[in-house]
Amino acid sequence: MSLVSNKTKKVFLSLNTKILENEKVDIILSPEFYWLRVFDIPVKTLNQARHVLPTLFEDIIDDISSISYQVQKLDDNRFLCFAYDNKKVYAAIKNSGISLSLVNSVYFSQNECEKFKYFKIENKNFLYTEDNILVKAPDNLFLQNIVDLEKEINKIDLSNHKVDIKLYNNVLKNKYLYSLIVLIFLISTFNFLKYFSYNSEKNNLLEKMVLIKKQASLPSSTIQTNSIINSYEKKLRKQKKLREALSYVLNNKEIKINNITLNRNEIKLTFLNSNKNLVEKYLKKKYKIISSKLKGLVLVVKVKI
Amino acid sequence: MKRLNPLYLIFLSLTILFISFFILEDEKVLINNSLKDYTILKTKALSYKDYKDTWNNQSYVEKTVNRILSSSKFKNIKITKNKTKKLLKLKVESISPNILNSFLNKLLNKNVNINKLELNKKYIYVEVGLK
Fold this sequence. Notes:
By secondary structure, chain A is an alpha+beta fold. Chain A has helices at 46-57, 86-95, 109-112, 149-152, 174-215, 222-251, 276-286; strands spanning 9-13, 25-29, 34-40, 67-75, 78-85, 103-108, 118-121, 124-128, 134-137, 147-148, 257-262, 266-272, 288-295, 298-304. Chain B has 131 residues and is an alpha+beta fold.
């Protein structure tokens, strides 16, 4: 069922067609663009038949490197086989003046012109042989009641058999192309999946951070937290120094201390019957002596922590 | 599809591939930053909690001092306590210097702020910070 049978304009394309078109067109290829044979191939499906075609056409076509094939089934094991050069058809369409974006579909004239036994178009004659194959007839052949296809062409009901044509310069082989694209998409998908997992992990971490802040009842701003922690650490360091100084002073068994008074910044040590030099020497090793007074047997030393 | 040159498809897919790599690298950087921030925050929270719960916590300081003083060792000594808003003033008198020593040891090993300390063979006078 052709959906566009009578709506689009139809154009018969032969080798030197030149038209100016600004509507969507269906192109009917003249026999000049393809080779057509009926082959008896002992296979069941069209695909199997198509695989065999290159070998079958080797005898007929010289250079089969850029040939595309199409098959239609006639009877059991009998197939209508088309061979065409995609590049030549593409070039002809381009040269004819039809804009490529206006091309709707392409058809073989073999299938489309069956209504007419013989016709002429653009000063060329075409007729169906006894085997029902459309061929180009010599120019000076005169037939009665020859149909001018130009007038009848838009009344043609197009069949379903479209030509699988590529309307661009085909540089790469399709096989590798599609597998390459699939590979690239796989890698991209993998990357995107990784991205989403990282994203969710990051959100997880952010949630955990909010939870920690709540549990430790940290103040809301980081600056506040930092300043509070800094002031506490300062206190802690002072306390450590204090304890260290105390243990240093008390550790020396040689000097006998009478009294220790500890403030935040200094220790006041009172000695009875001690050697001033010995005491000062020991204390100087680690701390700075603020003052050292000897009154009789009593030595009072103030040391800075 | 017959009009579309597959080269365009390849370029499109390559573009998508590059975009995916860039986005992934970006996200890696972001998540590393978040991880760093998280570990820093964890340690900060721990130290903050520590400070708030022990060194500068009034109830902790009082409890600790009372616990030390209630030990059986210190049954027979004279304890004078005086509490102000910011300080706990404690005077511990004993004949035995060993007991004084042990008290000092116990006190100094706890997480309390010592503001002032006076010690000799007869007594220990200490001012402990409450806040």
